[in-house]
Amino acid sequence: MGIKFIYGRAGSGKSYYCIEEIKNKIEQGKENKLILLVPEQITFQTETRLLKHIGEKSVLKSEVLSFKRMAHRVFNFCGGITHKRMNEAGRNMLIFKVLEEVSDKLSVFYRASKQQGFIDIVSKTITEFKKYNITSEILKVTMQAMREDDEELKMKLNDLSIIFDKFNEVLHKNYIDSEDELNMLSDKLDNCNIFDGADIWVDEFTTFTPQQLRVLGKLMQKANNVYFALTLDETHGLDETDIFNVIKNTEKKLIRIAGENRVPYDGYLDLNSRENFRFKESRELNHLEKHFFTYPFIPYKWSNGDIRIYKANNNYDEIEVVAKDILRLVRDQGYRYKDISVVCRNLEDYEKITSVILNQYDIPYFLDKKRDIVSNPLIVLITSIFEISSRNWSYESVFKYLKTGLTGLNGDYIDILENYVLANGIRGRKWFEDWWEYPVDRYHADKDEMSSEEKQRLSLINDIKDEVKQPLIDFYSNIKGKCTVRDICIALYDFMASLGIIERMESLSRVFEEKGVGDKAKEYEQVIEIIMEVLDQAVDVMGEEIIDPNDFIKILNVGFEKYEIGLIPVALDQVNIGEISRIRSRELKALYIVGTNDGVFPASNKDEGILSDQDRELLRDQGVELASDTKTKAFEEQFLIYSTLTMCSNYLMITYPLADFEGKSLRPSIIIPRLKKIFPNVKEESDIFRENNDTLEKVVAPVPTFNELIGALRRDFDKKEVEAYWSEVYSWYKRKPQWKEKADNIFKGLKYTNQEQDIARDKIRKIYSSNDKLLFNVSRIEKYAQCPFAYYVQYGLKAKDRKVYEFTPPDLGSFMHNVLDEFTNHIRDKKIQWNDLDKEKCKNIISEIVDKQVGESSASILNSSKRYKYFTDRFKNILTKSVTVISEHMRRSKFDIFRNEFEFGSYKDSEPIKLKLASGDEVYLTGRIDRVDTVELEGETYIRIIDYKSGSKEFDLNQLYYGLQIQLLVYLDALIKNSKYFLDKQVVPGAILYFRIDDPIIKSKRDLSDDEIKEQILKKLKMDGLMLKDIKLVKAMDKTMETYSLIIPAAFKKDGDFTKQSAVVTEEQFNMLRKYVNEKMIELCEEMLSGRIKIEPSKDGKFTYCNFCNYSSICQFDISLKDNTHKLIRKHSDEELWKEISSTVEEHQGGER
């Protein structure tokens, strides 16, 4: 009986020595048990290694155990488990319950106890206490022994002891905690002879917790000999800063435990004097092991290529280089995939991108990571069932539930229902209506206007609705009123059974298995078991407690969040991918360390947890040992660097990116410059600044090589130099049936132009005509000028956005126009004079009109939620301010409102504008004018057009020239041509103006009077447009005007003439603009009907009409493609524009078309 240490630095052959000793014992015919004790995560690897070195005898004569395996072995052999084992998920549910009960007794942690994340913190603290054999009694005694000035720590310990006490009280009624297993093992070993006379080798451990040390003490008493393999040598580890100090401290603890158990210490065997076992084929790696943490070090003057450093542009470049290099090792140097590992400090940063790239390169790999289950469809379904109720049957919760694919509902039916629910804003009580009568298209006025096809579709939607809601309603009725946890668990199980969800999960698992997606198959299989286990533990922990369903799902989620699925490798020959802290040394030839950046590796440990470093130091002074503080963790991180750098035997490649996925710059780790100093001839590699990167190294695997081939053929297509071997590569793909079509598509892609072919005139005419008549409104012509393709998609293909129950900007525009129309009608009908209107009267009238509009179906959405009701009040304020300003305009003006919402081309008293095209086609234009004002002056009737805009809008002659702002001129032309029908007289153009509907904010550095505020508002809402250059007319629009106007864009110079900034034109210019616009519309209509649907959005300065286009995902406009160009709206001076407009009109003089 005794203990002995096996010293050896990394690679010295400690593990090999242990296995050889086991082999020798077996060959000598020893009958005692031979145990190899290793960390849990490498038991499978160690068993494989033992079997390989010893053969089948190893299975019969020796055993690989971890502490966890050992506990289960003893409990099974010697008995003693009378309670069920609670796992981490169950513990978290229990902590949730405990915190609910004791939160009022807490002081420091009272507020924190109400936060969801606190559960995990408490769980980690309890785990730490148990691993270090800290009981609540120890906490209380320590608390009493502390000085008065340590009051904060005392309060912490008091809170923790309250939580710990309650936790253990509830736990031990039905369960044992998995963290108590080692203490139970240690107790059981006293009366269990399973390890009597055994030889035990303990390998691959760096430190031991007090629980583990207690178990080891019992094993020392029982065993014949216990051998500890320690990464250590005789001369290191005594200094606190030495990397081996962590191991030296472990050795001291083991010697102390041996002494306490009266077990003799038989000294040590130092393997360091022998030739390094691992690095015998690599002098570089041998030198690295000896000198990386040696001060001063000896530089290595040679470079054999065993150590490489690569600087990558980003993570993608980094992993792609690693993938290519792995294939090089396998293809050219005879490596097996199992000889290779890729490690990083944080696997989450590299998991997805590594999987994608290694799949592309056909590299088999195993991701050594436990997977969480919260995103599994069954977990999502369970949580969404409760969300539907708590979130009042919201769209998000209902369709999260339906889209799990586990409800049995047809996917097409789910889409139909989703579109209908979105279009009609269905949530809450609407789901409980017996029959939905909302129109299939919400823009229909009522259900009577629906077609028979729409009524049939509505019937189908109601059937789908019933199929969705009935199982849920049944479930909610089963958990109504005062329910216990047991009641809810039973109801949940019955719900899943009634829908066949478990069977569906099992079926999906089989499908994944058949498709070769083994990981997914195992996940689906294990999740079913996990659900049942979580429900069982919930019932055991608090089964008879009455609970609100919302609290129940919180508890369940706490359990789900802690479950992780562990998978074992499904193949023998594959690259191992994992986190540095999880990977242990094995027969590894090549290692890639990726993400070697500052702050990442070595990691900066800043999270101290509930107990700070200072707290831990104070507790240590009281004899209470806990886990490492951040300072100690920093030393442990240094040892981790040493262990990682020395893990492989032949080849080490260290990489780091210069930027993360978001483009933020990253710095290299301190490891990089240290390596460069020790190995001055190892040059840092990078492709970042390499000019000629077209090398044969790019020909690696079918998928990535194909991607490179595309680039090579593009260079060849652009007449650039390309290596000759790409021709052979292309021929290879052409010969492979599975690649031939893709290879052919490369040339199609190179010749691809992102443009649409023109459509034949007869076809386009049929598309755009109605009853064989080409009837357009003016805004359509402007739309075509903005982009021919967008026009075709909207009016030709009639593409529409998915209907969503929301109040859109077009809805707002229509709503405000209707309110303003109603307002002026009210004024006229009630014979109210503009002079009699004040702000209060305007407010009352607007409020009445808005409430009426909201009550109608077209604007009923404004009553659907508090958010929209707030918007309604906001709209009232805006409209009140607008009509107050309009009232002021009318008081200052001689003009009267002739008509609102004046439609031309639709009634008997007005004709559409007719455009005669050169092709012989006739286009008829219709439109609706927001407001038409008139005034009689000196026997002439002048008309003024007012266009209401809810956003900022200014008249732009440049935009008019390009056909992008012709609406008001067309309206003016229509009124002049139709005046004989509605006024029985000729009219003269007076003005075309934009009025902005708004409630502007007035800013000032001083307090303003009411009159000053009014003046500022009028300035902010001053109309913009064009007016007739006639002083008497302009003054008729603003009778109060002296030198400048607050309401129209006009001002006078001292001589009485108009200023240069005044927006005035002569009657001749007005008529010229009318004629120009007429010709511009003919030009655009000719182009439109010729079938031209070019993807060519207009661009005015920095603004492009793509900015607000709904069809960009259809056209895929890309300025980098040579065939995708903007139609540039060039800036011209007014003088140039008038000259061009005049020239165009003169050119077409000879009769209107």
From TrEMBL:
Q: What is this protein called?
A: ATP-dependent helicase/deoxyribonuclease subunit B
Positions annotated to bind [4Fe-4S] cluster: 787, 1106, 1109, 1115
Pfam families, sorted = ADDB_N, PDDEXK_1
Any further remarks?
Despite having conserved helicase domains, this subunit does not have helicase activity.
The Gene Ontology terms for molecular function here are: 4 iron, 4 sulfur cluster binding; 5'-3' exonuclease activity; ATP binding; double-stranded DNA binding; helicase activity; metal ion binding
HAMAP family for the chain: AddB_type1 (MF_01452)
Top class in the EC scheme: hydrolase
EC code(s) of this entry: 3.1.-.-
The cofactors required by this protein are: Mg(2+); [4Fe-4S] cluster
Q: Which family does it belong to?
A: Belongs to the helicase family. AddB/RexB type 1 subfamily.
As to how many cofactors bind and how, the note says: Binds 1 [4Fe-4S] cluster.
Occurrences of domain UvrD-like helicase C-terminal (ranges): 276-563
Summarize the protein's role.
Answer: The heterodimer acts as both an ATP-dependent DNA helicase and an ATP-dependent, dual-direction single-stranded exonuclease. Recognizes the chi site generating a DNA molecule suitable for the initiation of homologous recombination. The AddB subunit has 5' -> 3' nuclease activity but not helicase activity.
The Gene Ontology biological process annotation of the record reads: double-strand break repair via homologous recombination
Summarize the subunit comment: Heterodimer of AddA and AddB.
Q: Which UniProt keywords apply?
A: 4Fe-4S, ATP-binding, DNA damage, DNA repair, DNA-binding, Exonuclease, Helicase, Hydrolase, Iron, Iron-sulfur, Metal-binding, Nuclease, Nucleotide-binding
